[in-house]
UniProtKB/TrEMBL annotation, chain B:
Coiled coil: none annotated. It comes from the Bacteria. It comes from Nonomuraea turkmeniaca. InterPro entries: SoxG, TrmE/GcvT-like. Gene3D superfamilies: Heterotetrameric sarcosine oxidase (3.30.70.1520), Probable tRNA modification gtpase trme, domain 1 (3.30.1360.120). This is Sarcosine oxidase subunit gamma.
From TrEMBL, chain C:
InterPro entries: SoxD, SoxD_sf. GO terms for molecular function: sarcosine oxidase activity. Pfam families: SoxD. One of its GO terms (biological process) is tetrahydrofolate metabolic process. This is Sarcosine oxidase subunit delta. NCBIfam families: soxD. It comes from the Bacteria.
Length: 926, 187, 92
């Protein structure tokens, strides 16, 4: 219930919310957890495996228990009630361990930003604030990130004083000083969740979540910060840890410091009558704060025979019974705690009070403190088990990282302030540590929970060690302890300690499980940022793209490019459109946007020498003004790319690459040039985007070109195949190449990309030209048996396999790939070779990828596979379907019948030459 | 001359709208002359090219120098990008190089130039650019080839904002990205 | 995200670079003179140490220059970067 006064909540404003179908109110400053407790809601969820009632166990991101699903304003699963800031109109429900994703798209915006700083301070508690202030006062670029909405850290939950003023006021003053400095960035509501190599840290800033439905639509809801820091100060604090005893999962069992936070920070009484179970002094402070707030604290059960100096006396003065040398043996109740059983600590010699039972609705637990070493461990730092503190503390750093305050085991306020200000350099002063105590012995460990979220008990851990498991990593996987949403923040070390108990070894001997990012769950939406939808991956478009869109083209993705696939006319399906486009190219005149081909300018006295080394064929003999097709292979002899080489001058070439390979080929050429042959005097410059390229194809293409380029002598004699000319086309300076990828008379016209659209429109305005897309291009080239690298090849195919021995020079002393053609493997007669296939049913279209077999009926597997279909189309020119395939020993099989298993059918096909149309090449001159 | 169209021409209105708030200026500066120059920086040819440019080729990585309206930006140990107004010609540079080893390639249409200016320019770019854009380390006189969002760019810091040179085929993507990243600052 | 020091441009995010495998594996001067086994060794065999490894990187989104780096494969620490053609420096 809510206290009369106090807490960092705004009591002048009321927020309405609904939980599990019931309406409640709270105030700004509340979390969902504090508001539920204020309304007397004890049970929040049920557990994932056992269906046991679960309440609120902690007050921060270490919460293992109070899992909720947000329903409104937008569905969001698997949040903890302790980390959801309350807002008006919030609708939520408790979760039985698993949440439910939204079914509609998230309307919110998400983004990311990069940041650089001299010092990143993680955590704005006393140590972090002191560290940030010290760094900022030197003029350094500082980022201070903290997961809470306001600075102060542990001070927010206590009534402690700093420098003679309330701790929260001191924190606000320091934060204000920092915020006033131009080179300091203070990030509240920001969780640093990953610490990677070279001090690269990721943080997520929750910017509008706390506004609920009132969040402005144009502001990114969450932002991922990608921070590069010269130095990192981790002031991440500590988590209190639980103790394993019977019924320790009941609603009403709560970490002692969490109860203190609810009382002080949220003005909430988490119960009326409490018992405290502790191993150290810090829970006494919590008990005193609860008493001051009006909670009846019946007893403090302290495992130590002699509690810390002064604390027991102060407790007794406040009317609290102190049971030194005792333990809580069980929490009991129906759905929540109603009584607490205590008994003597069996291993101490303290005078026993005997078995006691207390009526209580709240049981505070403090098993000591674990420094939050997650980020330090992620950064590559080693962890060390500190016997005095009975916990893991940071050991050696691997990066420029310092750990200060409670995160390195400094548990006093004065110590944290000093530690932060001096950068954690000083050895931690000896301090009153609690007694290491983890597990209350029992005959029955089935309700001694170690991991509340995974429903893992001491009995489960004992089963794991009983099965012979000795490594903490193995026990983690066997029991799932520490693998839930909370990643074992409260359960990890406890599980290790229970193992150690079972195995009779010191806890420190077992080590720790690996801490992995993210520290707390991060939504995929935040990680995606604005890289989704249309911005998911760059869409590259040519200068002609707007025309294609306006004229109804459908598009194909080729690498990052959008290429027109085909241009259906009203009433046409793809098959009809492609057959029409193919006919236009073979019988009339057609044009394609070929601007996506990669283009590399190659210049220098040794340019021809470089190309001779990289291409399988000879380029140095190419005449100025001429063009040659070429193939590039890897040293293992396999084809990587093909294209044309244009000789612009004695020392100047233009190389084209396939659309998807432009960057790869440039990198490849640079790699050889820079790393193997740096003495070659050649420069390579990408000019892919400089030029728009239009392929003008078909028997009518010469006439169309002549109409637009009156200054160009276009006859076959004046402008032979595989040459280029510089001229004007439609008034634009252009380079026209006589290249054909279809077997027809064809030209490739290049103008600057600024003028590409004007060129294309001039061609279309000539009236006779049919635009065609990549599908038609594929059909036309396949009819001629021209392979597409990456479709008809897969990195295991040589030029010889493709039937292109003619492109492999016999004269050159060496070129990349040559030596491999002398390997036995590349000479095997049963290598897969490119052939054509004609289905015996001329209307039958084989799916690409279909396997090929020799047998007309399938025997028991394994069935010998001969190869597969790489390309398959309907051909207007052939009046039938056809395919290209890679077939074992294929060229020797021409004329043979093979079978293509399609579903349950074996489709008979005849092997042919891969050149199916105009094998004599009669059409290229028109 | 036929009608030219710049790669981000379709964005003129949306850029203008986004620039109204005063927080940010977005615009395409189309048709600038861009010339890729490759030459051994120690060679006499490099000195002659510097003379033709009116300023020595900068040899410190990541630096750009100006000569009147022309900027010469370091791109690599033997590579520079010369950026000039539309009428600037490559021919004098070709002549300065002569038939010595090197290259002068007109790449004006290879990339277009976007201006990202105004008080929030640095923040907008930081959403997609991993290098440190702080004026103490990346101010006028610097140049960087890097990634902005998922596009390769050449960044040139100006007195007020940045010039972003982007491949023509990526210009539509990057313009959409910039407008999206700008939303929070201009709404 | 590693921060890789390009010998020209200085430290840049790993995403700007392409990896080129083991350094100092030169293309044989006369491949035709090699036995199949020697050629296969050049083609297919590379070291895979735990610890310091000299490898090639290209600053592909930046200055497009190839260079060599000595990286500890266990910690990702880069002990040295050096230009192509320079000998591998002595590193820890
Ligand atoms: Zn570089």
């Amino acid at each position: 219930m809510r206290r009369e006064s106090g807490g960092r909540i705004d009591r002048t404003r009321t927020l309405r919310f609904r939980f599990d179908g019931r309406d409640y109110t709270g105030h700004p400053g509340d979390t969902l957890a504090s508001a539920l407790l204020a309304n007397g809601v004890r049970q929040v969820a049920t557990s994932v495996k056992l269906g046991r009632p679960r309440g609120i166990f902690a007050a921060g991101s270490e919460e293992p228990s109070a899992l909720v699903q947000i329903e409104e304003p937008f569905p969001e699963p698997m949040l903890t009630a302790t980390t959801v800031e309350l807002y008006d109109g919030l609708v939520a429900s408790g979760l039985p361990g698993q949440g439910r994703l939204a079914t509609e798209p998230d309307p919110a915006r998400y983004d990311a930003t990069h940041a650089h700083c001299d010092v990143l301070v993680v955590g704005a508690g006393p140590a972090g604030l002191a560290a940030a202030r010290a760094a900022a006062r030197t003029g350094a670029r500082v980022i201070l990130a903290d997961e809470q909405p306001e600075p102060g850290g542990h001070l927010l939950g206590t009534a402690e004083q700093v420098a003679g003023q309330p701790g929260t006021e001191w924190a606000a003053a320091v934060a204000a000083e920092l915020a006033g400095l131009p080179e300091v960035t203070v990030l509240p509501r920001t969780t640093v969740f990953g610490h990677y190599d070279d001090n690269h840290l990721l943080a997520v800033e929750r910017r509008t979540n706390h506004l609920g439905g009132a969040a402005p639509a144009h502001v990114a809801r969450e932002r991922v910060w990608r921070i590069r820091a010269r130095r990192v100060v981790l002031a991440t604090g500590a988590h209190e840890r639980p103790i394993a005893f019977a019924g320790n999962d009941l609603p009403g069992v709560m970490l002692a410091d969490a109860a203190r936070t609810y009382v002080n920070r949220y003005g909430v009484l988490p119960g009326r009558r409490a018992v405290v179970f502790t191993t150290g002094d810090s829970a006494y402070a919590a008990a005193m704060d609860l008493v001051a707030a009006g909670v009846k604290v019946a007893a403090i059960v302290d495992v130590r025979p002699a509690p810390g100096a002064g604390w027991a006396d102060r407790a007794r003065e406040a009317g609290i019974e102190v049971l030194a040398g005792h333990v809580v043996t069980a929490a009991a109740g129906d759905g929540q705690v109603s009584s607490v059983l205590a008994g003597p600590h069996p291993e101490t010699g303290a005078p026993a009070v005997g078995e006691r039972s207390f009526d209580a609705d709240l049981l505070l637990v403090s098993g000591g403190w674990n420094p939050v070493v997650h980020l330090f461990s992620q950064s590559g730092g080693t962890l060390r088990y500190d016997e005095a503190l009975s916990t893991l503390v940071p050991g050696a750093s691997r990066q420029a990282v310092e750990v200060v305050g409670a995160a390195r085991g400094v548990f006093t306020l004065a110590g944290c302030l000093e530690d932060g200000a001096t950068g954690g350099g000083a050895p931690a002063a000896a301090q009153a540590a609690g007694e290491p105590y983890w597990l209350v012995p029992s005959q029955d460990y089935r309700t001694h929970f170690v991991d509340l979220q995974r429903d893992v008990t001491v009995a489960d851990v004992l089963r794991a060690t009983g099965a012979g498991l000795r490594s903490v990593e193995h026990v983690k996987r066997y029991t799932t302890a520490g693998t839930a949403h909370d990643q074992g923040k409260t359960s990890g070390l406890l599980t290790t300690a229970v193992m150690a108990h079972a195995l009779g070894v010191p806890v420190g001997e077992l080590g720790a499980t690996t801490f992995r990012a993210p520290y707390t769950p991060v939504s995929f939406a935040a990680l995606a940022g604005r890289d989704r939808g249309a911005l998911h991956d760059p869409v590259r478009v040519t200068a002609l793209h707007e025309w294609h869109v306006a004229h109804g083209a459908l598009f194909e993705n080729v690498g990052q490019w959008k290429r027109p696939w085909y241009y259906p006319r009203p009433g046409e399906d793809m098959e009809a459109a492609v057959l029409r486009e193919c006919r236009a190219a073979r019988e009339g005149v057609a044009a394609m946007d070929a601007s996506t081909l990669g283009k590399i300018d190659v210049v220098g006295p040794d340019a021809a020498e470089l190309l001779d080394r990289l291409y399988t064929n000879m380029m140095s003999t190419l005449a100025v003004g001429a063009i040659r097709y070429g193939v590039m292979c890897r040293p293992d002899g396999m084809v990587v790319d093909d294209g044309t080489v244009i000789r612009l001058a004695e020392d100047h070439f233009l190389v084209t690459t396939t659309t998807g390979n432009a960057a790869t080929v440039l990198d490849w050429m640079e790699e050889w040039l820079q790393t193997e042959w740096p003495w070659l005097r050649v420069h390579l410059t990408s000019v892919t985007d400089q030029w728009a390229t239009v392929a003008l194809v078909g028997p009518g293409s010469r006439e169309v070109l002549a109409g637009l380029a009156p200054g160009l002598a276009v006859s076959a004699a004046d402008f032979p195949f595989m040459t280029w000319r510089e001229t004007e086309v439609a008034g634009m300076p252009a380079r026209v190449c006589r290249i054909s990828f279809s077997g027809e008379l064809a030209y490739e016209i290049n103008v600057t990309s600024w003028e590409g659209l004007a060129l294309w429109e001039a061609l279309m305005d000539s009236g006779a030209v049919t635009p065609y897309g990549t599908e038609t291009m594929h059909v036309l080239r396949a009819e001629k048996g021209y392979p597409i690298v990456g479709q008809d090849t897969d990195g295991t195919v040589t030029p010889q396999d493709l039937g292109m021995s003619w492109v492999v020079s016999k004269k050159k002393a060496d070129f990349i790939g040559k030596r491999s053609y002398a390997r036995a493997d590349t000479a095997r007669a049963d290598r897969k070779q490119l052939v054509g296939l004609l289905p015996e049913d001329p209307g039958r279209l084989l799916p690409e990828g279909t396997h090929l077999v020799e047998l007309s009926s399938l025997p028991e597997p394994p069935v010998p596979m001969l190869g597969h279909v790489t390309s398959s189309y309907r051909s207007a020119a052939l009046g039938r379907t056809f395919a290209l395939a890679l077939v074992s020993g294929g060229r020797a099989r021409v004329g043979e019948r093979l079978y293509a298993p399609v579903g349950d059918e074996l489709v008979p096909v005849t092997v042919t030459s891969h050149v199916l149309y105009d094998p004599e090449g009669a059409r290229r001159d028109g | 001359m036929a009608e030219r169209r710049s790669p981000a021409a379709a964005f003129a209105d949306r850029f203008a709208t986004a620039s109204k708030s005063g927080a940010l200026t977005l615009a395409e500066i189309p048709f600038l002359r861009q010339i890729n120059v490759r030459v051994d920086p120690e060679s006499p040819a490099a000195a002659d090219l510097g003379a033709a440019l009116g300023v020595a080729l900068p040899v410190s990585p990541g630096t750009a120098v100006r000569s009147g309206e022309v900027t010469v930006a370091w791109q690599g140990p033997d590579e520079w990008l010369v950026i000039g107004p539309e009428g600037y010609e490559a021919e004098p540079l070709r002549a300065a190089l002569g038939d010595r080893h090197g290259s002068v390639v007109d790449v004006s249409a290879q990339r277009t130039t976007l201006l990202v200016g105004g008080p929030r320019a640095r923040e907008v770019l930081a959403h997609g650019c991993a290098i440190d854009l702080h004026p103490s380390v990346f101010g006028p006189g610097a140049v960087a080839q890097t990634m902005l969002a998922r596009a390769q760019v050449v960044l040139l810091p100006q007195q007020d904002g940045f010039l972003v040179l982007v491949r023509s085929s990526f210009a539509v993507y990057l313009a959409e990205w910039l407008l999206d990243a700008a939303t929070e600052y201009v709404t | 995200m590693l921060l890789i020091p390009c010998p020209w441009c200085g430290p840049r995010d790993e995403a700007e670079f392409h990896y080129g495998g083991q350094a100092h594996v030169a293309y044989p001067a006369d491949p035709g003179a090699l036995s199949d086994e020697e050629w296969a060794r050049y083609l297919f065999f590379r070291d895979n140490p735990k610890g310091s490894f000299a490898e090639r990187w290209s600053h592909s989104a930046g200055c497009r220059r190839w260079f060599n780096a000595v990286r500890d494969t266990a910690t990702n620490e880069i002990h040295a970067v050096y230009r192509v053609g320079e000998p591998r420096p002595v590193t820890p």
